[in-house]
Amino acid sequence: MANWFSVRMRASLQQKHISGGEALVVKSAIAETVSALQQRAFSHSRGVPDTCHITVEAVTTPLVDVPLLAITDQAQPLQAMNTFIRQQGISDAAFTHAVALLRAPEQMRGAALIDAVTGERIDALDCRGVRVSRMTYDPSTLQAWRNKHAAYQGARIEEALLLASKVASASGIVGELCMSDDPEYTTGYFASAQSGYTRIHQMKPLGSECGGRVFFTQPDVSLQEVIHYLQRTPVRATSV
Ligand code: AMP
Q1: Is the CB of 188 under 6 A from ligand 1?
Q2: Collapsing DSSP states into helix, strand and coil, what is residue 196?
Q3: 21 lines ligand 1 (CB under 6 A)
Q4: What gap in Å lies between CA 22 and CA 27, rounded to an integer?
Q5: pLDDT category of residue 117 using cuts at 50, 70 and 90
Q6: In testing the pocket of ligand 1, which one of 10, 40, 109 has its CB within 8 Å of the most ligand atoms?
Q7: The pLDDT value given to residue 226
Q8: Are 23 and 159 in contact (CB under 8 A)?
Q9: Which end of the chain is more exposed for a tag (fewer CB within 10 A), N or C?
Q10: Model confidence pLDDT, tens digit, residues 139-159
């Protein structure tokens, strides 16, 4: 019998993406997780959905341990972060394309994959993008992280840090840029295995619904393998 279950939620209003969420939990936590995701879907500032799908799926492969990224807070807006992000192996073309995608009026519900050198988008998933799932925290790592980072506590940062840790552990990923699509939340981040998780303030004006995620890839990445890892491989973030 499976020990772990992937729980995923997707909510929309007349095809517009409202909210999504994912968790990797043990069987006894399925009911509370489904309830929490359902509540999230129906209390999002982007609107009240007319459709909400929640999927529960047994995970049949063992969890892979990945390092939890270190978090830093840079009180700088995105433009001031250009140099820092380019130092992480992201070309001008890739950075410019990513920012344009994150600011586009059509919202993504997943992430776009962009070649870190050429700046070309390499997935063909348009607004759907790649949705990362099947990640969880090692409980003692999460407790230690909470003790150390009282100021950052909350589901939003914990979930984003977990997602970023999985993405950074993927072979062929150079880094990630994220801007929340929540009109009331303007802090985003850049993350990579090399630089850790760096919060970026004032990434967009308050009230703006644009947002999304971009994963920058190495030129020789195997698209199929990286997407499979991000969507299907179950991982547990631990401190190393
Ligand atoms: P959020 O961090 O929930 O505000 O999401 C911001 C944007 O990131 C969304 O509009 C999606 O495009 C993208 N996103 C959210 N969750 C995921 C995920 N699990 N995998 C990939 N992209 C995601």
Answers
A1: no
A2: strand
A3: no
A4: 15
A5: very high
A6: 109
A7: 98
A8: no
A9: N
A10: 999 999 999 999 888 889 999
